[in-house]
Structure formats: structure tokens, C-alpha cells
């Protein structure tokens, strides 16, 4: 069976809390019994290797980034591979070096005793709630040497130079020191894959990792073109409101905007009911009790959801399913965002069959893990994964069936068939993809003890306290795309609009965030809300975007940004929100509206520029200038005026602009008109004639009384500021 690999990337402290639990769960659920092979294809997320001692290794296909001071005892190079050079490889005499080493970082009691777990260590001796300071304090797996990247430019919990602004992360990615190193690690993993599915990216969305994650996702999209499933993560925070809450709101909004443009699908994660400006209340689960303010607790819940919902594209049973299928199913009608749900544990009651559990269940089967977004049972595109329901517990045999036999679900012969029927009957107007495996989720140290005392050892729900340690549970998780996600956008939009002037937040503006970019972010939230509600914002097909990329000097993101600008210069309602791609390319705005672009408002050649970039249309027997400009002409104009456009192209269009009579040369009349417009009528006729005569004397090489294109090009090449002035910022 061909492995369809996935590379996981974790960016940020809280994302690594989640990731640590996720990889712990996978290692705890490895199966080593050849008679009972695992239903999960672990090769999707893990890679096999060999170290210098010829030992076979099996490590997560993973990249991790966190700030200096968070790794503690963890060696960036790991302990599986001998990365230290031998003495004969050194370029210096190691005996003549003075080595100064810092005291090793302390390990948590659990990590200290990790190698003694086979000796019946009493789990009660660990107090994870107080011992865990960082995600490395409960990390089980050993990593590949290229996995961990410590960001040396910033320190964890540093108040003098905090890593708390979106643009800090974006600027960090732009540095050669970081991006080259990190991009090389990504490339090394990708080149080792035989048939790669794509990427899973977890990122903190309320601090500088929002910008770093957005830049990383853009890099993945531009370089590899594979499916990208992104999870922007929000730590639960019930602290007193402060000004920093609005900073987190801006970071989150910018993060969603950028990953929404570059990812295949994204789903915000949080254990808070509302993620901004702070999480006042946590999500409630019927059979677990946890402390949401403890990252060690809340991240375990989110990791459980990720481990389960990802079964769709990493099980042997559904070998044809892929990450791209999941993204395509849920990314419909411009809905890039999906909500994540969890049922932990799945409510299988003691001594009850699945048919009776489902028949007697009231309410929703799941709890939302997406902030400001409740997930109804109806009107969803959804992907559901269920694990831990044995096939022998779906119903009683015929001779024991009694009341079960009268239920329609009794005809079902498998867990998958019965759950499919249940979801079809209870989820009105929904399309559901369901996958299931029989193996439950094994629970072991260092998973937190959050299950109530009515949960039995094997995860069943009792009506009385049982007081045993939970060793395994049934779990159901899902991703849902529907109009309910609009509430999430509306909530964040409402908070973002509280910021009247982004310039008051100096950290953003000082690090390069412009007011136009912030306003564009606000418009993006409004557009996303409308798209989710079914009021689809004008957009383009993939083929159109590819064509526009081929014909301009813009990226996909820039093309969409330019289209938003095209809409903004029109009057409200002039360009409808619901329109076909053909309409988006043909609908025209009056040329006078170009004056609403600051760079053209004061340009003396504004009308002439409009004429040059506007197509001519036949009008009866004569040819007249178009009455407006369409988006494609607007896009071409900005492409020529962009920084990326080469000098030769700019010179060509500059010549066309100055050639008023369009006879192919710049004659005396063209030069005089150009001079009058440049000086805005400030020179007399004699003075204009004198200037034009001198221009011809110096530049008319062949003496024909006009400047040819080659002569004009020769003049322009001597102008040092031509490229800077022939430019419109997008």
C-alpha cells in the first residue's frame, strides 16, 4: 500500500501544547501485535529512518517552532541521531578550547522517571497540574534532528521585547536567517515523500506566531501546491480585560485573512466559548471536568479532537480518502472556514447497545471547539470520525432483540451503517462523510485525569460512581461547514471594529502594518461572513486566477486584493456582492472614478492613462472610447505600474501615454501637450515652445523633428527616478 504522507507543522507555544498531547496519543495507540494490526496507517504522519548506529527510527514527520526559553531540557538535535561531529571532522584542536556550559534545565518528575514507567510507577505520584510549565514537560516521543527549531530572536514571556504582534512574525519569516533554514527543513521532508497529501499546520493566532504561520502557509501554497489544512489556535484566557486584548483581536483577524487566502481549509480551535477579546466561559462536556485555564488540560481536549477527526485520511480502511477530499468537501461556495466538534467520551452507556443509545439520545451529539460558533445538527457539510464502538455492540441477536427489532435501525449490520442512518435522520439538509474504526482511544500517562467518576475503565458511562482509572474511550469528532460559522466572523468583526484608528497601536504601524491593510482586513471579515451566509462575494474561478497570474506580475493574493480595491472605488451597491466571474471581469466603472485612487487623483495624466488602458469599442460606424473600465483593464493598469513590472514595459506604456495623437512618434504637438500638463498651465506658450525645442535638440538623434520610441527610451534610461515615479501602490 502506497503511503500518502502528510507533514505537520506546529508554530507557537500553545500549538505545541496541543501537538505534544497529539503525538503522545498516537504513540500510546501504536499496536505491536501482528495478530491484531493497527487500523491506522501511522506512516502517514511518521517517517522511518536509520541513525548512525544502524538503528531503525520511527519519528513524527514534524516541524516545531517555539521561542527561546520554552524547550527546557529538550535538545534541538534530539537524542536518536548522533549529530555531534567527531574530533577528526573538527577544523580546530578541541583540546585547546575552553568550554563554558550552562546548568541543564530541570526536568519534570514525569520526564525524569520516563524510563522507569515499566516498573509499575504509581501514577498518583505525579502532579501534572503543578509540574507542567511547558509542553516539553509531558512529551513522550523522540524527535528527528530537523524537527525542533528554537527562535533565538525572541524569548518566551519577555516583557521588554515580546513576540506579540502579527507583523513581528511576518517580518521574522522574511529574514534570511529564519526562512531559509525553515524552508530547507520543509523541503527535506517533502523530498523524502513518495506521494505526499499535503500539510497540517497548527499556529497560535493571537500573537506573533499568527504572522509567522500566515507566511508559512503562503510559502507552502506557492512552493508545493498541496492541500493545506490549518488550525489557528486560541489559548483560553479568562483574565481581566486589558488593552492587549484588542491586540490579540487584530492578530487573529489578520491571521484568518491571510490563511483564508492561502490554505485549502482552516478551523479555529479553542476551549473558550468566545475567543475574543477574552474567553469568559469554557466549553462544557457532560462527562469530563477540566480546568480550561490550564494549557495542559485544554490542549489535551483539542488534541483528542485532532487525533480523531484526522482518521479520515490516515486509516487503512479508507485508503482512498485523502486530505484534499476533506478540504474539497467542506470548502464549498467560498466557505474556507469550518468548525470542529468533539464528543468525549462518546456516550456509550454500560450494558447498552448502540441502537438504544442513539434512539434514546436527545440534543446534540457533539460540543463545538470553535470560538463563537455553535454547531447545529442541520444544514451542514460535515466530515465525522468515530472510534471505539465494537461491531458486537450495535444490537442484540434476533432471539434477544425484543423491542430493538421494531426499530428501523435494526436492519443495519455495522456501526458505519447504523451511524450513517442516524446522521441522515437527525441532521436535516446535511451532507455527511462518516469514517469509523473499532479501536478505542487508549488513555495513559501523561493524559490528564479529566474524566468524571461515572466513566468506566473502558470508557462506558455508568449511572453511578465507579471510581476507576480510564484506560480507553470511544470518541467522535467532526468538521462542519455551514452558515453557523457566520456568527464567528460577526463576533470577531464586531470586536475589530472597536479599533477606530490602528495608528494608536504603535507596535503595528511601527512594524509595517498600514492603515489600508487593516481596513482591508475588516472588509475581509465582512466578506467572509457574507460568503458563509450564502451571499457569495464576487470572486473568480481557479482558471481565471491562473490566467491573471500568467498575464500580470501579481500573486493570487494580490489579484484578490486588487479586485477588492476595484469594488471600493465604486459607489455602494454599484458592484453587487453576488455576481458571476464573467460579470466580475466585464462590469465597468466610469473612468472618472479612478480619481478615487490617491496615486491618480493628482496625476495630470489621469485621463490619458485611463484612455491607454481602456479598450476601444465599436459604436456604429465610428470608434469611440469605452465609457468605463472593467476589472481586467484595471488589473493590467496596476500590473504595469507595479514594482515588479520591468523597465522595458514601463517605458513602452509611458511612450503610449505621451503619444496623444497615437501616430507612433512624439511630435512637437505631443511634447507641448505633455509639457502643459506637467506644469499644469504654469508656462506661457513661448516658454512651452522653448522647452520642447530644447528636448528635440538634445534627443532627436535622426533630426526628423520627433522622438521615436528608441529615442524616447534613450531619454528615459538617463532618468534615475523614472521607476519610482511610474508606480502605483496596491
Automatic annotation (TrEMBL):
<feature type="domain" description="EF-hand">
    <location>
        <begin position="687"/>
        <end position="722"/>
    </location>
</feature>
<dbReference type="GO" id="GO:0007005">
    <property type="term" value="P:mitochondrion organization"/>
</dbReference>
<feature type="domain" description="EF-hand">
    <location>
        <begin position="646"/>
        <end position="681"/>
    </location>
</feature>
<comment type="similarity">
    <text>Belongs to the misato family.</text>
</comment>
<dbReference type="GO" id="GO:0005509">
    <property type="term" value="F:calcium ion binding"/>
</dbReference>
<keyword id="KW-0479">Metal-binding</keyword>
<dbReference type="InterPro" id="IPR019605">
    <property type="entry name" value="Misato_II_tubulin-like"/>
</dbReference>
<dbReference type="Pfam" id="PF10644">
    <property type="entry name" value="Misat_Tub_SegII"/>
</dbReference>
<dbReference type="Pfam" id="PF14881">
    <property type="entry name" value="Tubulin_3"/>
</dbReference>
<dbReference type="InterPro" id="IPR049942">
    <property type="entry name" value="DML1/Misato"/>
</dbReference>
<dbReference type="Pfam" id="PF13499">
    <property type="entry name" value="EF-hand_7"/>
</dbReference>
<dbReference type="GO" id="GO:0005739">
    <property type="term" value="C:mitochondrion"/>
</dbReference>
<keyword id="KW-0106">Calcium</keyword>
<dbReference type="InterPro" id="IPR036525">
    <property type="entry name" value="Tubulin/FtsZ_GTPase_sf"/>
</dbReference>
<keyword id="KW-0460">Magnesium</keyword>
<dbReference type="InterPro" id="IPR011992">
    <property type="entry name" value="EF-hand-dom_pair"/>
</dbReference>
<keyword id="KW-0677">Repeat</keyword>
<protein>
    <submittedName>
        <fullName>Protein misato</fullName>
    </submittedName>
</protein>
<dbReference type="InterPro" id="IPR018247">
    <property type="entry name" value="EF_Hand_1_Ca_BS"/>
</dbReference>
<dbReference type="InterPro" id="IPR002048">
    <property type="entry name" value="EF_hand_dom"/>
</dbReference>
<keyword id="KW-0496">Mitochondrion</keyword>
<dbReference type="InterPro" id="IPR029209">
    <property type="entry name" value="DML1/Misato_tubulin"/>
</dbReference>
Amino acid at each position: 500500500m502506497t503511503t500518502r504522507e502528510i507533514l505537520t507543522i506546529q508554530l507557537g507555544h500553545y500549538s505545541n501544547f496541543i501537538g505534544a498531547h497529539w503525538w503522545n496519543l498516537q504513540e500510546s495507540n501504536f499496536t505491536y501485535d501482528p495478530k491484531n494490526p493497527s487500523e491506522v496507517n501511522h506512516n502517514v504522519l511518521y517517517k522511518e529512518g536509520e541513525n548512525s548506529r544502524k538503528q531503525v527510527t520511527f519519528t513524527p514527520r514534524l516541524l516545531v517552532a517555539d521561542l527561546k526559553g520554552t524547550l527546557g531540557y529538550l535538545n534541538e538535535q534530539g537524542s536518536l541521531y548522533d549529530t555531534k561531529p567527531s574530533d577528526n571532522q573538527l577544523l580546530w584542536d578541541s583540546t585547546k578550547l575552553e568550554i563554558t556550559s550552562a546548568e541543564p534545565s530541570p526536568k519534570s518528575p514525569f520526564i525524569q522517571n520516563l524510563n522507569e514507567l515499566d516498573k509499575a510507577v504509581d501514577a498518583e505520584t505525579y502532579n501534572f497540574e503543578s509540574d507542567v510549565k511547558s509542553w516539553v514537560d509531558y512529551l513522550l516521543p523522540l524527535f528527528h534532528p530537523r524537527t525542533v527549531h528554537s527562535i533565538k530572536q525572541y524569548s518566551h514571556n519577555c516583557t521588554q521585547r515580546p513576540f506579540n504582534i502579527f507583523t513581528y512574525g511576518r517580518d521574522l519569516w522574511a529574514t534570511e536567517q529564519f526562512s531559509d533554514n525553515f524552508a530547507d527543513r520543509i523541503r527535506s521532508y517533502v523530498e523524502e515523500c513518495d506521494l505526499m497529501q499535503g500539510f497540517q499546520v497548527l499556529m497560535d493566532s493571537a500573537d506573533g506566531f499568527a504572522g509567522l504561520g500566515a507566511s508559512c502557509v503562503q510559502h507552502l501554497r506557492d512552493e508545493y501546491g498541496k492541500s493545506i489544512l490549518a488550525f489557528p489556535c486560541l489559548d483560553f484566557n479568562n483574565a481581566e480585560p486589558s488593552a492587549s486584548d484588542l491586540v490579540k483581536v487584530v492578530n487573529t483577524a489578520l491571521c484568518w485573512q491571510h490563511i483564508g487566502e492561502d490554505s485549502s481549509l482552516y478551523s479555529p480551535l479553542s476551549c473558550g466559548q468566545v475567543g475574543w477579546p477574552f474567553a469568559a466561559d469554557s466549553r462544557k462536556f457532560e462527562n469530563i471536568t477540566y480546568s480550561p485555564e490550564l494549557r495542559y488540560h485544554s490542549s489535551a481536549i483539542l488534541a483528542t479532537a485532532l487525533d480523531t477527526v484526522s482518521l479520515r485520511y490516515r486509516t487503512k480502511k479508507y485508503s482512498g480518502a485523502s486530505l484534499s477530499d476533506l478540504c474539497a468537501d467542506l470548502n464549498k461556495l467560498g466557505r474556507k472556514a469550518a468548525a470542529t466538534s468533539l464528543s468525549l467520551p462518546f456516550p456509550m452507556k454500560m450494558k447498552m447497545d448502540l441502537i438504544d443509545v442513539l434512539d434514546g439520545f436527545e440534543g446534540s451529539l457533539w460540543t463545538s471547539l470553535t470560538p463563537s460558533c455553535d454547531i447545529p445538527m442541520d444544514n451542514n457539510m460535515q466530515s465525522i470520525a468515530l472510534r471505539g464502538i465494537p461491531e458486537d455492540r450495535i444490537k442484540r441477536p434476533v432471539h434477544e432483540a425484543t423491542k430493538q427489532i421494531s426499530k428501523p435501525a435494526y436492519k443495519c449490520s455495522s456501526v458505519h451503517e447504523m451511524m450513517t442512518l442516524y446522521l441522515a435522520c437527525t441532521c436535516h439538509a446535511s451532507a455527511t462523510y462518516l469514517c469509523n474504526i473499532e479501536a478505542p482511544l487508549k488513555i495513559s500517562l501523561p493524559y490528564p485525569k479529566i474524566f468524571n467518576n461515572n466513566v468506566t475503565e473502558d470508557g462506558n458511562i455508568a449511572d453511578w460512581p465507579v471510581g476507576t482509572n480510564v484506560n480507553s474511550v470511544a470518541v467522535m469528532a467532526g468538521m462542519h461547514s455551514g452558515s453557523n460559522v457566520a456568527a464567528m466572523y460577526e463576533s470577531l468583526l464586531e470586536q475589530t471594529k472597536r479599533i477606530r484608528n490602528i495608528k494608536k497601536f504603535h507596535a503595528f504601524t511601527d512594524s509595517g502594518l498600514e492603515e489600508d491593510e487593516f481596513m482591508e482586513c475588516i472588509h475581509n471579515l465582512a466578506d467572509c461572513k457574507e460568503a458563509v451566509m450564502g451571499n457569495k462575494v464576487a470572486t473568480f474561478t481557479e482558471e481565471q486566477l491562473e490566467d491573471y497570474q500568467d498575464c500580470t506580475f501579481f500573486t493570487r493574493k494580490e489579484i484578490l486584493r486588487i479586485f477588492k480595491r476595484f469594488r471600493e472605488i465604486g459607489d455602494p451597491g454599484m458592484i453587487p456582492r453576488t455576481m458571476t466571474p464573467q460579470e466580475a471581469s466585464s462590469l465597468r466603472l466610469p473612468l472618472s472614478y479612478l480619481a478615487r485612487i490617491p496615486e491618480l487623483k493628482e496625476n495630470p495624466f489621469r485621463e490619458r492613462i485611463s484612455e491607454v488602458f481602456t479598450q476601444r469599442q465599436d459604436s456604429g460606424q465610428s470608434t469611440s472610447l469605452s465609457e468605463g473600465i472593467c476589472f481586467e483593464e484595471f488589473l493590467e493598469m496596476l500590473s504595469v505600474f507595479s514594482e515588479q513590472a520591468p523597465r522595458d514595459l514601463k517605458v513602452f506604456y509611458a511612450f503610449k501615454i505621451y503619444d496623444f495623437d497615437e501616430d507612433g512618434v512624439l511630435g512637437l504637438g505631443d511634447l507641448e501637450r505633455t509639457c502643459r500638463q506637467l506644469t499644469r498651465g504654469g508656462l506661457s506658450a513661448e516658454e512651452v515652445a522653448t522647452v520642447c525645442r530644447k528636448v528635440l535638440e538634445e534627443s532627436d538623434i535622426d533630426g526628423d523633428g520627433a522622438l521615436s520610441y528608441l529615442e524616447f527610451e534613450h531619454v528615459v534610461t538617463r532618468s534615475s527616478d523614472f521607476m519610482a515615479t511610474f508606480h502605483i501602490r496596491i
